[in-house]
């Protein structure tokens, strides 16, 4: 850096916390940091509202965090699907239905354009500054051990950085922490007209080439997800076009990878939350909960550190709480992954579950439950 560059950097105002990514993880972290009086900045690549490849299902575990964020009422006021059952469909067409706990704290499906915008607006209302269409392109430590953050055409400085920028995290990549992705699978997602009499159910359908998740997001639209491998995804799309009578020009959103190794979440003045920290199998529909809650946990640690409490113990506590969040749950995720990687095995499991439905009920309730 030139001497002039160094001088400019020294004179630059230092923000308390810069959060890269305005998804559920970033917005949650920003809202809690701003509410505690920290000067908080969110850098978001997209212009909201925007859709995102997701099943749009909000696990009941999210409600307590959403309550602490003060947004439950607004969420319920948006169009959404209130989901009362999961129906598993095997390759041979056999069906098995598991009822879900209903009521105000039950599972819902809501378009991410609504959900994510509402959370980002909440962070804004609590005092966070939000920059949309602001893509992180470089991140460096300064001599003062804070961060020099480059977005297109602008440089900023922050004491703490949070990587909340999803599974392909630029923050992690720029810090050489992003694991090599396993490009074994790819997902497609679209909102399509809601078939008549679809009901208030989530459908998880195993197909020879992968699987499909379906959930009504309002009275007119169905969220349709397809998960396959690069060689099989086009035949899955052809299946969906036939099954739901879709035109070939149907627009689809896409994302990869669906799996990658987790990365260490707590570093000196640097945190990772949500998908940036750990990606879970989408089949179980829990990623949004982990994003919201890890955002809250990171905010607690940042508030302590910037408030002058011991950095090391706050980082240790955060890492411990982050691990605890997944404890006793990763085996379900592995089981779900094994099932979706081999739809034939999954269909056999479903046949067994049909004989003894309590097993599948137990597993489903372990995933879809308040925490
Ligand atoms: C097929 C599929 C179905 C799923 N279904 C469900 C479901 O039904 N329920 C559920 O709970 N979870 C589901 N998930 C998982 C869920 O989508 C994620 O876990 C969740 O979105 C993670 O939130 P996040 O805030 O960590 O990241 P994201 O939601 O990915 O948000 C990251 C944000 O960072 C921004 N960003 C990225 N790079 C940059 C950059 N360089 N600079 C600035 N901003 C940047 C992005 O624009 C984005 O807005 C599904 C996932 C898949 C793939």
Q: What are the distinct ligands in this entry?
A: flavin-adenine dinucleotide
Structural class category: alpha/beta
Approximate strand percentage: 15-25%
SS summary, helix count: 13
**Ends: how far apart?**
49 Å
If you compute it from the alpha carbons, what radius of gyration comes out, rounded to the nearest whole angstrom? 21 Å
Principal-axes geometry comes out as elongated
What fraction, in percent, of the residue positions are helical? 25-40%
Tell me the major beta sheet: 8 strands, mixed
- Total DSSP E strands: 18
Mean pLDDT: 91
Low-confidence stretches: none
Description:
By secondary structure, the chain is an alpha/beta fold. Helices cover 38% and strands 24% of the residues. The protein contains 13 helices and 18 strands. The chain has helices at 3-11, 24-35, 62-69, 72-77, 112-125, 170-174, 233-243, 274-277, 287-306, 311-326, 330-341, 343-355, 357-367, and strands at 14-20, 40-43, 57-58, 81-82, 85-89, 95-99, 108-109, 129-131, 136-141, 147-151, 154-163, 186-193, 201-207, 210-216, 221-228, 253-255, 266-267, 270-272. Strands 1, 2, 8, 9, 10, 11, 17 and 18 form an 8-stranded mixed β-sheet that branches. It has a 7-stranded mixed β-sheet with strand order 6-5-13-14-15-12-16, with helices on both faces. A hairpin with a 2-residue loop joins strand 17 (266-267) and strand 18 (270-272). Helix 2 (24-35) packs parallel to helix 9 (287-306). The termini are far apart. The model has no long low-confidence stretch (mean pLDDT 91). The chain binds flavin-adenine dinucleotide. Flavin-adenine dinucleotide binds at residues 20-26, 43-46, 52-57, 59, 135-136, 164-166, 170, 187, 189, 225, 227, 255, 258, 274-276, 282, 285-289, 291.
